[in-house]
Amino acid sequence: xxxxxxxxxxxxxxxxxxxxxxxxxxxxxxxxxxxxxxxxxxxxxxxxxxxxxxxxxxxxxxxxxxxxxxxxxxxxxxxxxxxxxxxxxxxxxxxxxxxxxxxxxxxxxxxxxxxxxxxxxxxxxxxxxxxxxxxxxxxxxxxxxxxxxxxxxxxxxxxxxxxxxxxxxxxxxxxxxxxxxxxxxxxxxxxxxxxxxxxxxxxxxxxxxxxxxxxxxxxxxxxxxxxxxxxxxxxxxxxxxxxxxxxxxxxxxxxxxxxxxxxxxxxxxxxxxxxxxxxxxxxxxxxxxxxxxxxxxxxxxxxxxxxxxxxxxxxxxxxxxxxxxxxxxxxxxxxxxxxxxxxxxxxxxxxxxxxxxxxxxxxxxxxxxxxxxxxxxxxxxxxxxxxxxxxxxxxxxxxxxxxxxxxxxxxxxxxxxxxxxxxxxxxxxxxxxxxxxxxxxxxxxxxxxxxxxxxxxxxxxxxxxxxxxxxxxxxxxxxxxxxxxxxxxxxxxxxxxxxxxxxxx
Length: 505
Hints:
Elements: H1 9-12, H2 18-36, H3 42-70, E1 73-75, E2 80-82, H4 84-100, H5 116-133, H6 138-157, H7 162-193, H8 198-207, H9 213-230, H10 240-246, H11 249-255, H12 258-276, H13 280-302, H14 307-328, H15 331-356, H16 379-382, H17 384-397, H18 404-418, H19 422-448, H20 453-457, H21 469-483, H22 485-501
Antiparallel strand pairs: 1-2
Helix pairs in contact: 2-3, 2-5, 3-4, 3-5, 4-5, 4-12, 4-15, 4-22, 5-6, 5-12, 6-7, 7-8, 7-9, 7-10, 9-12, 10-14, 11-15, 12-14, 13-14, 13-19, 14-15, 14-18, 14-19, 15-17, 15-18, 15-21, 15-22, 17-19, 18-19
């Protein structure tokens, strides 16, 4: 007769689950409130979402305190892994989400924000991303990935335009393909090692001396394809511009930041131990993917006629730039990756928020798309403050000093040089110069072209049609972070490095 297995609550270390469960509880509460009394104002759900995200952030601070005292924590039968990288990634996920939610409070009534389900799905999505980064168990990563992805597909479709439905279907199709590749890759690694935990997989493969290298490469190929889709790496990027165009500008800005940092962390856990094992083939493939993604996305961005599509290709290029950190695989490059993405979060969310406040339901005759370059002609005359703010975001994305992303680019290129990737560092610098052209193209339209007559007639109200105090506050916060980032770079890098150094990656 088998003896019963006794599991104590203390051994489960349930505190590791707290940050993920808080948004789940918030989502369920929103749904219950809607069942009891429907038709409540969206501002209630915005406040509830921010409240639960603030509680989530507070729980993360507690986890950070415990981590700094006790080191890496495992929990719930060791499927939860709370290390420095997990905590840093969750800080970015939750902080960006707190900045995103008030963007629902626009002047005009947009379809999706009238549904409490929007806010519930948003909180479920955040919980999924948190599970992804706080585990090295391939099954739990998959569950978190699909929880977040399924919620995100629905959020895109809720924008309620033909292009939104098209975008959601494309994203769903590509996401399903990526999920299939991930599952197959995980199956291969399990067959080789008998484990689904990344650290254990690394240990077993190293002990075997990578005897089954052919099968390892099969698993790596499927994992690369899966994360290629999630990170918009060329040639898996084709869904990105269409999905960004079909989404609301606010959601597009959010998608360019949060899903990618979650995917970067998982890719870091999976690929870095393989690169450190001396698999030259993987190193060459990653090198090519990084260079091609940066360069091709920049070339495509050069020829865009719509600002949102230009920013979509720009996001693909930035993802390629940051993917270099996984290739380099050093503590310095991993720290540079987090620094880059934090600074990118401020700037990119600010740029997309500027597009969001100028969102139109009815397009005038001269505009083929929502955010064509022509729409911004002569903006400095009709709406000077908005033009200056947008120009600062563009200069930051281009990496012009002293704005935020300049420091991210400098540290990333520096980590490439230190890691011995001098040619890669030169290519990264050249791509930054190419990118400057299409960012400055928008500035030329805003500052050097004559304004469209109809925009002069309405005193530039077009550019701030959806602006409310909440939206202005978010943009103000983003612009402060973009301009004065140089004051915080050193302490921020010190903070990041302390966590990355003690993570084991």
